[in-house]
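Lecture 7 notes: from sequence to structure.

We start with a single chain of 166 residues. Read the sequence below before looking at the structure.
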Amino acid sequence: MLVYKVATAVASWSSSSTKYDVFLNFRGDDTRDNFISHLYKELDQKGIKTFMDDKLKRGDKISSALLKTIEKSKISLIIFSKNYASSSWCLDELVHILQCKERSGDQVHVVPIFYGVEPSSVRTQSGSYEVGLAELEKRCKDKILVWRDAMKKAVEFSGWDSQNVR
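Now the structure, written as tokens:
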């Protein structure tokens, strides 16, 4: 049901003037083989051009091509899941998405989807978010405050909670 609701809403925002209508920002280990694969299929069936980077390797840096893809996408779906906050890659993408939103205003839509996590856990960075960020802080002290701020901003956008969709 959530997949259908997301795809239907996104269809109303999509346009043919961008290379991709939608950029999917997600933690692959949590969602790739369940929610994301179903969402991608539903968006594709509706003719919505969706970017899903499924060729990333752990530890790789975000390429300039990937950053350009974010910039050229009209809609970014942020799929917050249990282990999202343990991925520096997801968090770096999130920061770039929000920077694009700041520059582009209403031309870019940012939509958070809370998949198996409470929005309050993301907002307050508690539970698995607290644990993930603590681990990242050991390796990436210089980015942690930016990531924390980005998550707090992202949860303020209107979105969906998988636990409350019927």
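The beta strands are 20-26, 50-51, 73-80, 109-114, 160-161. Keep this in mind for problem set 3.
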